Amino acid sequence: MNPSAQPQTWSQRFETALHPAIAQFNASISFDIELIEYDITGSQAHAKMLAHTNIISSEEGEALVSGLEQIRQDYRKGLFKPGIDAEDVHFAVEHRLTELIGDTGKKLHTARSRNDQVGTDTRLYLRDQINQIRSQLRAFQTVLLTLAEQHVETLIPGYTHLQRAQPLSLAHHLLAYVEMTQRDWERLGDVYRRVDISPLGSGALAGTTFPIDRHYAADLLGFSQVYANSLDGVSDRDFAIEFVAAASLILVHLSRLSEEVILWASEEFRFVTLKDSCATGSSIMPQKKNPDVPELVRGKAGRVFGHLQALLVLMKGLPLAYNKDLQEDKEALFDSVKTVRACLEAMTILMQEGLEFRTDRLNQAVTEDFSNATDVADYLAAKGVPFREAYNMVGKVVKTSLVSGKLLKDLTLEEWQAIHPAFEPDIYEAIAPRQVVAARNSYGGTGFAQVQQALSAAKERLSQVN
Ligand code: ARG
Question: Which residue ranges form the domains of the chain, and what is each CATH number?
Answer without folding.
Answer: 11-110 (1.10.275.10), 115-210+222-365 (1.20.200.10), 373-462 (1.10.40.30)
